[in-house]
Amino acid sequence: MLKNENLNQITLPRWNQGFNNLFRAELSRWFKKKVFLVRLLLWCGFTNGMAILIWLQAPMAETEPIFVFGIFAGLTSSIGITIIMQESIVGEIKSGTASWILSKPITRKSYIFAKWIGNSIGAAISMIFAPTLIFYVLYFFFTGEVLNLEMFLPVFVVLSLNMLFFLTFTLMMGSFQQNTSLVIGVPIAFYVLQQILFNFTNSLIDIVPWGLTNPLSDGTPSIVVSFILGVQPFSLLPIFITSFYVIVFVILAIINMQKQDI
After folding, report:
1. Closest CA to 258 of 149, 186, 176, 181
2. Structure confidence at residue 180 (pLDDT)
3. I need a labelling partner for 112 at 20 to 30 A (CA). Which of 102, 141, 176, 224 fits?
4. Could you give the residue ranges of the DSSP H alpha helices within the chain?
5. Segment 238-254, tens digit of pLDDT
């Protein structure tokens, strides 16, 4: 009996196969010239608009616009990224695009990571970095004082982490739920629930992202406002807890995507 020496070796796909192409595609959606400029104007306007109104009414106001900036930076990025991400997976599944993409030599881990990282970078630049930079410029314009520029990076990181929580939350919901109303409704309901809860108590403030951008019920500044003012935050625990949630959401999104019959 002859032995076949010309066997073809089968190589299993790498876990990140196809990531680069998908990542570039996700990122390009944020930086198409017209889309990028429109979103930039929207987020900068929403985030800084109320602070500008306060300065116009009270030119000598210093801390109040900072509090308002923290609140609106958290609000607009949280709700905004949830709206943008609601169709990220569900829309592609319903249209058949996801089936077409995953029929290629692309792993489902790459599919999730590309959406997570690509959208995170795009949102961080247009929804967080640009509005925050503009706020620092506006503060100097209206008050004549320069905010501590060393605090710009911590402020950017905290605001981005808050946005990333809701981005990943929505991504996770879309990985196992094809009802768009639930995909967008649950993260927004969670945001509103935080607001209702912490109007009465701060007992759970360390284990949810609310305190990252919003003041406590007793008027204590949020973590991001504390960084801007250069004072000690009420706690750093929400930063670590929120980071943990983001990691868990990504893992769950991958697990759920592996189970999807696409």
Report:
1. 176
2. 85
3. 224
4. 19-30, 33-57, 63-85, 90-95, 97-102, 108-123, 130-143, 152-176, 180-198, 210-213, 223-229, 237-259
5. 999 999 999 999 999 99
Number of alpha carbons in the 13 Å side-chain half-sphere of residue 26: 27
Q: Measured in Å, how far apart are the chain's first and last C-alpha atoms?
A: 44
Do residues 85 and 167 make contact, with C-beta atoms less than 8 angstroms apart? yes
Q: Is the predicted pLDDT of residue 97 greater than 60, yes or no?
A: yes
Chain-centre distance for alpha carbon 26: 15
DSSP code of 13?
Answer: P
pLDDT at residue 1, as a whole number: 45
Q: Is the pLDDT of residue 190 over 60?
A: yes
Query: 158-175: buried (b, 16+ CB within 10 Å) or exposed (e) per residue?
Result: bbbbbbbbbbbbbbbbbb
CA distance 242 to 166: 10
On whether the CB atoms of residues 213 and 70 are closer than 8 A, the answer is yes
In angstroms, what is the C-alpha Rg of the chain? 21
Q: Tokens representing 246?
A: 């983001």
Cα–Cα distance, 119 to 228 (Å, whole number): 26
- Give the position of tokens 């960084």: 227
Output the furthest CA–CA distance in the chain (Å, rounded): 95
User: What are the distances in angstroms from CA 120 to CA 13, 26, 41, 117, 124?
Assistant: 26, 10, 18, 5, 6
- Per-residue pLDDT band at 2 (split at 50, 70, 90): very low
CA distances from 6 to 3, 9, 13 (A): 9, 9, 22
